[in-house]
Design brief:
There is one protein chain. This protein is mostly helical. It has eight helices and no strands.
Length: about 170
C-alpha cells in the first residue's frame, strides 16, 4: 500500500473514532483536557505502527487497549501528580439530562483507583464482555470480575444517599 494511501486510511479512521476515543478517555481520567492529551498520545502511538496495526482484525479493540494502557502507565508514572481542582463546575461540552446525578457519578468514578475505573469504563461504558475487558487490560478474566465487583461496591457506597439522623422529640 502506498504511503499516501496509508496516511489517508489512518486519517479517516482517526476522524471517525476521535469522538468515541475522547469520551472513553474522559471516563478514564475525569478531565476533558487530560482526555485530549490521552487521545493525542494514543493516536500518535497508533500512527507510528499504522502499517502493521491497520491489518489487525479488531482495530477498535486494539486502539482502546492503547488508550487504556496509556492511561494506566500515566497513573504509575513518577511524573504524575494529583492536583486539587477547583469546583468550578463541569465542562458543558455534553448536555446531561440529570446534571446532579451525572456530577455525583463522575465524582464517584473519579474516586476509584485507576484499574477499577478502567474496568468499569470498559465493562459498562464500552459494553465489553469480561474476556474482552481482560484482553484490553492485559489481565485474567477473574481479575476483571474482582475489580468490577470492588468498583461497583465502592460506587454503590458513594452514590447511596445517606439518611439524615432522626430528630428526637422530647
Amino acid at each position: 500500500m502506498a504511503r499516501q494511501a496509508r496516511v489517508e486510511e489512518f486519517t479517516e479512521y482517526v476522524a471517525s473514532k476521535s469522538g468515541w476515543l475522547r469520551k472513553v478517555a474522559y471516563l478514564l481520567c475525569g478531565d476533558w483536557h487530560r482526555a485530549d492529551d490521552l487521545v493525542q498520545e494514543t493516536v500518535t502511538k497508533l500512527y507510528v505502527n499504522w502499517s502493521r496495526v491497520s491489518r489487525v482484525e479488531n482495530l477498535d479493540g486494539y486502539t482502546r487497549r492503547i488508550l487504556v494502557n496509556t492511561f494506566l502507565a500515566e497513573q504509575r508514572s513518577p511524573w504524575w501528580r494529583r492536583t486539587i481542582r477547583s469546583e468550578n463546575g463541569p465542562d458543558t461540552t455534553f448536555c446531561d439530562v440529570d446534571l446532579d446525578a451525572s456530577l455525583d457519578l463522575r465524582r464517584a468514578l473519579a474516586a476509584l483507583p485507576p484499574r477499577q475505573r478502567a474496568t468499569v469504563v470498559l465493562r459498562y461504558y464500552c459494553d465489553l464482555s469480561v474476556d474482552q475487558a481482560a484482553e484490553a487490560l492485559g489481565c485474567s478474566p477473574g481479575n476483571v470480575r474482582s475489580q468490577s465487583s470492588r468498583a461497583l461496591g465502592t460506587l454503590r457506597g458513594n452514590l447511596t444517599p445517606r439518611s439524615a439522623p432522626a430528630e428526637r422529640t422530647t
